[in-house]
Amino acid sequence: MKCPYCGFMQSKVIDSRPTDEGCSIRRRRECDDCKKRFTTYEKIEDVPVMVVKKEGTRQIFNRNKIINGMLRACEKRPVSTESVEKAVADIENSLNSSGVREVLSEKIGEMVMEKLKMLDEVAYVRFASVYRQFKDINTFYEELEKILKEKK
Question: Which interval of the chain is the signal sequence (predicted)?
């Protein structure tokens, strides 16, 4: 580590301790040349998940878009904001732990619908009607029939 005072490239670690609930490490260092002390922080580098849209464009994953879409679907329904945030956190954790750096927007949409189906069936149908672009009442009815069959 380069000394911020004299620019010497060698230093030794005097003390290390975790910070930010174990998400980073604070290191106290001493320059081998000028003997001055300085602090460095080490943390895991976040590589963002890229979302591949239908038209082929790519965007950085944005959890707020999912929260907003789910909250719109859950409007005037007995679904708490906390349960929506937990569902989005589950989706985000699933994407991050998969190790995949690019994911199709369709995959995220399916994950959202799965979570909504568990939270509230009406919110699920609302989201599905927009997401799957129901063309007519028959498509809507077919989706409702699927839900009823799953319940039995």
Answer: none
Q: In what order do the strands lie in the sheet with 11-19?
A: 11-19, 24-31, 37-43
Residue-wise pLDDT for 13-24, tens only, equals: 999 999 877 778
Residues 38 and 111 both lie in one domain? no
- What integer pLDDT is reported at residue 41 of this predicted model? 92
What number of other Cβ atoms are within 10 A of residue 81's Cβ? 11
Q: Is residue 70 located within the same domain as residue 39?
A: no
Q: Is residue 76 part of a domain?
A: yes
Tally: H helices and E strands in the chain: 5, 6
Helix (H) / strand (E) containing 116: helix 105-119
5: in domain:
no
Q: Which of 38, 40, 51 is nearest to 6 (CA)?
A: 38
State the CB neighbour count (10 A cutoff) for residue 129. Answer: 14
Residue 50 located in a structural domain: no
Instruction: Tell me whether residue 39 is exposed, middle or buried, using C-beta atoms within 10 angstroms of its C-beta: 0 to 12, 13 to 18, 19 or more.
Output: exposed
pTM above 0.90, yes or no: no
